[in-house]
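Example 3.2
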Amino acid sequence: MRRVLESKRGIAVTMAMWFLAVLAIIGTSFAYMMRLEPMIARHHQEGVKAMYVAMAGVDKAYTLLGTDSPIREFAEPLKDDTGTTVGTYMVKMYPLYLFALQGGNSKQFFRYNTYKNEWEKRRMQSTPREIGPGGALAGDETDFFYTLRGGKTKDFYRYEISRDWWERKKIASTPRAIGWGGALVHWYEVNYYECPECGFPPKYDEPGNCPVCGEELDPNISHYFYATRGDATTEFYYYSVDKEKWTTMATTPDKVDKGGALAWADGDYLCPVCNHASSTSGTCPNCNRELEKFIYALQGGGTTGFWRYSLNNNQWQKYRCPECGHISPTLDNCPTHDTPLEMFIPDTPASVGEGGALTWAGGNYIYALRGNSNVFWRYKISTNAWEGMASILGEIGVGGALAWDGGEYIYCLRGANTSDFYRYEISKNEWATLPSVSYKIGWETHYASIGSGGSLAAGDLYRIVSTGYIPDKDNVRATKKIEAIIDIRPKARYMRRIIYWREIPKD
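Structure, written as tokens:
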């Protein structure tokens, strides 16, 4: 017995040590869990906050659609009721679809998904009649596109995006037949702001909230489309959507022909004399002249003509008096000083022909196709100067067209009876080849040759990407990115509707 007891001597110490080791492990694990669980909860909490910050960015973008000056990219802090910043959202807005006319005396009409980078597989409803030379397409930033038929006709059509429907009965015909060099551009003007809820009688000059019910004021907007007749003429018109009527405006400085194009620079107001820029209307601090907004035009027809048109004064501008700033569309003497006028709006670097096109890409630049070549330029508004950009991947011909997506890219139809389609990345000054213009009948893919009257325009179904950031706190920084597709319908003035939204996983 004694030997048995002696053999078990010290077992209590061993068991105690094992017990203490297990207890230490449990205690360490418990301490770790006590530290980890609050961190997980904190990360989750901050992630939820970041998600709501990102959603607030979508909501802000959503309210900007259809306003007098849609912002394409912005970042703002989000504050709570006490004024404390709880996070920051960074938002980018992109029109989701591009629309294209085939031209070349065809009725084909196409839609391109800029998110999926593919042409719609189904055939869109065809235009009412064949589109020919001078055909042009422009959207009104709601649910409609307007189209010049061209081909030496007066036909003018309207397309409803939400219903994929062309009005079979043509709307008001143009004053004269449109031919080569016909072009179309949209412009809108905010008349006033009003309450959509209580209808409080006053009309407000500035955006804000209704003093009675607190609802955000809606803009009352008039839409116009300006058009050159082309066909080696100087005729220039505008169409009022509200009045459904065409009006003849000041004639262009010279005859517009093949490659003629128009672009509206929906950016800053400019002084017509010194080019001083301002985000608001008013008077130039340098020249005491009214600030204006402009449409820019290529003459085409193998010329270097480039002009701008004052929307404020119905005046084409090309030359300027160096002494008093008198502006004139033609080269003559100043009526005040009898001194020769100087060129103010510069000619293009080389002659523009078939496939000439213009598009404003936000801010300070207008981009241009020369046509009949792979030459690509941009015009800097603030300095009145042209500069060469990266050459296009193929030679542009008849039917060449440009459209800006409101973000980082400009899209281009090559024309020249090809189906080639390109994309230009503005920040990198680089071109890329995209899927050729096509549609499907059954299982068979058909490629569209873009010809005279080919045209391209961005639609107003928007993709919004919003990133919510929560500032660093206790080594926790949360980020969430979400995407939303916004549809604008004409059921109410500038009604916005979120089709869907999803969280974008982290890379």
